[in-house]
Design a protein that fits this description.
By secondary structure, this protein is mostly helical. It contains four helices and no strands. It starts with a helix and ends with a helix. It is found in: Membrane. One of its GO terms (biological process) is methylamine metabolic process.
Length: 97
């Protein structure tokens, strides 16, 4: 049972690393569209100059944090919190488009 639990935690960790890196790379590949979407949002348009780059850097940084987390007990909570927080920001932006 312990072996399954350890493998599951490792799988979740790698999944979050992949998730954050994929999100950042997909935004980099279509950066112009991402910038236009930010400018079209009434809530985020005042920050549309620096916010797209900032979001990409933060997503790559969060992926790195998940890679370097030492304590697996707190790592899971951090990943859940970061994921929930970023999705709340994403959906609040998507609802205004």
């Amino acid at each position: 049972m312990h072996h399954i639990k350890a493998n599951f935690k490792a799988f979740i960790s790698y999944f979050f690393i992949l998730l954050f890196c994929y999100a950042a790379i997909s935004k980099i590949m279509d950066f112009e569209k991402f910038q236009i979407q930010m400018k079209d949002s009434p809530l985020l348009s005042p920050f549309s100059e620096f916010l797209p780059l900032f979001i990409i850097v933060i997503e790559l940084f969060f992926g790195r944090i998940v890679m370097l987390s030492e304590n697996s007990k707190y790592r899971t909570f951090r990943k859940f919190y970061l994921n929930a927080h970023l999705h709340c920001i994403y959906w609040s932006n998507a609802c205004h488009l």
